[in-house]
Amino acid sequence: MATAETKRATEVMTGADILVKSLVEHGVDVVFAYPGGCSMPMHQALTRYGQSLRTILPRHEQGGGFAAQGIARSTGRAAVVMATSGPGATNLVTAIADAKLDSIPLIAITGQVPTAVIGTDAFQETPMVEVCRSITKHHYLVTHVEDVARVMKEAFHIATTGRQGPVLVDMPKDVQLDKCSVDWDVPMNLPGYKVKTPTAHPEQIRQIAAAIKHSRRPIIYCGGGVISAEASDDLRALVKKTGIPTTMTVMGLGLYPNDGPLSLDMLGMHGAAYANYAVKDCDLLIALGVRFDDRVTGKLEAFAKNAKIIHVDIDASEINKNKVAHIPVCSDVKFALQELNKVVEAPEDISEWVAHCQDLKRKYPFQYDESFDGILQQHAIRELSKLTQERETF
Questions:
Q1: Which of 389, 163, 160 is nearest to 258 (CA)?
Q2: How far apart are CA 81 and CA 63, in angstroms?
Q3: DSSP 8-state class, residue 186
C-alpha cells in the first residue's frame, strides 16, 4: 500500500503545476503575473492553487516586478513575478536589473516559445537568458519537464543565500504542458555555487573596536547590506553603546530612526547636506553593508579623505572596489556587529563631535518654500509621513 510520502514522491504533474506548487512549497503566497500566450499554462496552474497562492494582475509587467520587489524588501523573503515571452519578458528587464543592483531576492518567471522553435525567430521569441545574463544572479532556460522541481529549488536557494539577487526561470510552453513523475526531494546540482557565509576574524573585530575607542570624530555609514543581514537591531545596539552619529544610504533608510538623537539621515547627492559635511569632517568612517556608490561619494578621492575607513561587507568583490579600506572585513554584517557589540567601548569623549553634528543639522536643515501656492513634493511627502507615522509600513 502506497504511503503519503510515496504518493508525494511519484505524483504525475505538468511542468506548470510543478512550478506553481514549488512556489507554494517555498512559502510564496503572492505572485504578480501578467498573462500571455506562452505563459498561459502557468496561469491556469495558478488558478488551481488559488487557495494557497494569491495572483495579482499588474497593469504592466515592470510594475509587477517592482511590486514583487516591495514584497521581498518588506518581508526579507524571495518574491515572484511572472510574464509571458517576448515583449512581456523584456518589460521585466528594468525591475530585474534593479533587483540585481539592490541585492533583492526576486524570482522572475517568463514564458518562452516551445523548445522546437527556439532559435527560429518564432513569434514573440526573445532569448531572455542572454538578455538577462549580466543582470541576474543566475538564470535558467528549462528544456525538460523533469528539471522543473530541481530548478525551482535551486532558484530560491541562489536568490536568498550569500549576497541576494534575482534569478530568471525561462519556461518554454511545451515544458509547461509536458508531464512527469515528480521527485520533490531531488538534490540540487550547483557544483560551482558554494555558499560559505564569511565571518570576521577575532583580530579584525579587535581592530575595529580599537579604532572606535581611539576615534574623536567617528561616523557610522550603513546601507542595504545591514537590512539584508537582518542586523538592524545589532546596528542600533552599536549606536546606543558607542554614541556614534549615524548616516544611511537610500537602501539603508529605516536602520536607525530618522528622529533619533544621533541620526544624520541619508547622505549623498540626494541626501542631507549636514550628513555630507559630517562625513567630510570625520576621522573614522565605519561602513557597513554599503558599496561606496557614486551617488553617495561624488569625487572618490575627496570622500572622507581625512578618515580611517572600516568596510564590512558580505561580498568580497565590494571590498576596496571603489574606496580603499584601512580595515577591510569580508563578513556577514550581522555576525560582525554581534561580535563587535560584545567587546566595543565608546570613544573616550566625542561630546564636542556630537555637538558639531547637531550644529550642522541646525545650520543646513531640510527646507523648501512653504509659501509656494502649488503642490510641492516635499510638502506632500512630509504630510504623508505625518499621517502614516503610527504605521510600520505604507
A1: 389
A2: 10
A3: P
- 64's grid cell: 509587477
CB 160 within 8 A of CB 105: yes
Number of neighbouring beta carbons within 10 Å of residue 247? 30
Distance CA 16, CA 392 (A): 36
4: pLDDT confidence band, cut at 50, 70 and 90?
A: low
Contact (Cβ atoms closer than 8 angstroms) between residue 257 and residue 344: no
User: Comparing C-alpha atoms, which of 135, 128, 131, 134 is closest to residue 102?
Assistant: 135
DSSP 8-class letter at 38: G
* Domains within the chain, CATH numbers bracketed: 10-181 (3.40.50.970), 202-387 (3.40.50.1220)
- Non-local (6+) Cβ contacts of 49 within 8 A are 20, 21, 23, 24
In Å, the largest CA–CA distance within the chain is 80
Q: How confident is the model at residue 9 (pLDDT cuts 50, 70, 90)?
A: low
Is beta strand 179-181 parallel, antiparallel or unpaired with respect to 12-14?
antiparallel
For 118-158, how does the pLDDT look when each residue is reduced to its tens digit (9 = 90+)? 999 999 999 999 999 999 999 999 999 999 999 999 999 99
Q: Distance between CA atoms of 185 and 192, rounded to whole angstroms?
A: 21
Four-point Cα dihedral 254, 260, 261, 265, nearest 10: 40
* Residue 67, pLDDT score: 98
